[in-house]
From TrEMBL:
<keyword id="KW-0472">Membrane</keyword>
<keyword id="KW-0812">Transmembrane</keyword>
<feature type="transmembrane region" description="Helical">
    <location>
        <begin position="197"/>
        <end position="216"/>
    </location>
</feature>
<protein>
    <submittedName>
        <fullName>DUF3667 domain-containing protein</fullName>
    </submittedName>
</protein>
<feature type="transmembrane region" description="Helical">
    <location>
        <begin position="78"/>
        <end position="96"/>
    </location>
</feature>
<feature type="transmembrane region" description="Helical">
    <location>
        <begin position="168"/>
        <end position="191"/>
    </location>
</feature>
<feature type="transmembrane region" description="Helical">
    <location>
        <begin position="228"/>
        <end position="258"/>
    </location>
</feature>
<feature type="transmembrane region" description="Helical">
    <location>
        <begin position="136"/>
        <end position="156"/>
    </location>
</feature>
<keyword id="KW-1133">Transmembrane helix</keyword>
<dbReference type="InterPro" id="IPR022134">
    <property type="entry name" value="DUF3667"/>
</dbReference>
<dbReference type="Pfam" id="PF12412">
    <property type="entry name" value="DUF3667"/>
</dbReference>
Length: 265
C-alpha cells in the first residue's frame, strides 16, 4: 500500500504516513465520512481551527514558532488559516450588504471624494470604487501582505530572529486573526444599530494594533511598550505604502480612461 499524498510505501497497519504525516484513509467518501471530517476539522471542541483561534490569543508564539519550526499537527497551517479568513471576509460583506445596507452606504461616503470622479455619463472605476473594494477585499488583502511583512521585517532588522519569509508567516496569521475579530465587531455593531463605517473603523484600529504589538512582544520576548512602538511604526509605514499604491493605481486608471475617451481631462 502506498500513501495517496506522497506515494511512500506503507505497512497495512499504519494509520499515518511516516514520510508526510498524512492520515491513511481507506474508506470511500460518503455523507457520513464527510460529516465526520467536517466535525473533526471545525465543529468539535478539540478541532484545529478553534485551537488555533484561541491559541493565537493565549500563546501566539507557540502557534507561529511551531509552524515556522515544523510543528504543524496541533494547529492549522498558516495558508489554511488565512484562506478560511478570506472566506469569512466574504461572508461578512454578504451579511452587511443584504441585511445592513445602511452600513455599506456609510462606507461608501467614507471614501475620499477623489475616488468619485465624474465621467462623461458612463460609470467608471472611481464612482464604484467602494463596490470594487468590497467585492475584491480578499485580493486587496493578499496583494498587500508582502508589504505588511516588509514593514515588520524592517522594524526588527536589529533583532534578526526571523527572516522576511517568516515575517510573512507571522503577518498572515496576524491578519487572519484580525479578520476574525473584525467580523464579530462589525456584525455586533450592526446588530446594535451602529452602522457608521468610519466610526467603527476608528474604534477597532487601536485594539488591533495593541493585539499586533502583543503578538510581537511574545515572539521577541520584549517589553510591551517596545513592541507597541515598533508595530505602530510598521503600521504607519504600511498605510503610507497602501496610499502610494492606491494613488498609483488611480493615476494609471485615469490615464487609461482619458486615453479611451471615457473621462474628460
Amino acid at each position: 500500500m502506498n500513501c495517496k499524498n506522497c506515494n511512500n510505501t506503507l505497512k497495512d497497519t499504519q494509520k499515518y504516513c511516516d514520510e508526510c504525516g498524512a492520515k491513511v484513509i481507506n474508506n470511500r467518501l460518503t455523507p457520513k465520512v464527510l460529516i465526520k471530517q467536517l466535525n473533526e476539522q471545525f465543529l468539535s471542541i478539540d478541532n484545529k481551527f478553534l485551537k488555533t483561534f484561541i491559541s493565537l490569543f493565549t500563546k501566539p508564539d507557540k502557534v507561529i514558532d511551531g509552524f515556522i519550526n515544523g510543528q504543524r499537527k496541533t494547529h492549522l497551517n498558516v495558508v489554511t488559516y488565512y484562506a478560511i479568513s478570506l472566506t469569512v471576509l466574504g461572508f461578512q460583506m454578504f451579511i452587511l450588504k443584504n441585511f445592513f445596507p445602511e452600513f455599506i452606504e456609510s462606507q461608501s461616503s467614507a471614501f475620499d471624494e477623489s475616488f468619485k470622479m465624474a465621467g462623461n455619463g458612463n460609470k467608471n472605476l472611481f464612482e464604484n470604487f467602494p463596490d470594487v473594494f468590497n467585492n475584491y477585499q480578499g485580493v486587496f488583502f493578499s496583494l498587500f501582505m508582502p508589504f505588511i511583512a516588509i514593514g515588520t521585517w524592517l522594524i526588527y532588522l536589529n533583532k534578526p530572529k526571523y527572516n522576511y519569509t517568516e515575517h510573512l508567516v507571522i503577518n498572515l496569521y496576524l491578519t487572519a486573526q484580525t479578520i476574525y475579530i473584525s467580523f464579530f465587531v462589525y456584525i455586533l455593531m450592526a446588530l446594535f444599530g451602529i452602522k457608521d463605517y468610519l466610526f467603527i473603523s476608528i474604534i477597532i484600529t487601536l485594539p488591533l494594533i495593541v493585539y499586533g504589538a502583543y503578538v510581537f512582544k511574545k515572539l521577541y520576548s520584549t517589553k510591551f511598550i517596545d513592541a507597541f512602538i515598533r508595530y505602530f511604526i510598521a503600521y504607519i509605514l504600511y498605510m503610507i505604502v497602501f496610499g502610494i499604491i492606491l494613488f498609483a493605481i488611480t493615476v494609471v486608471v485615469v490615464i487609461y480612461l482619458i486615453s479611451t475617451g471615457q473621462l474628460n481631462p
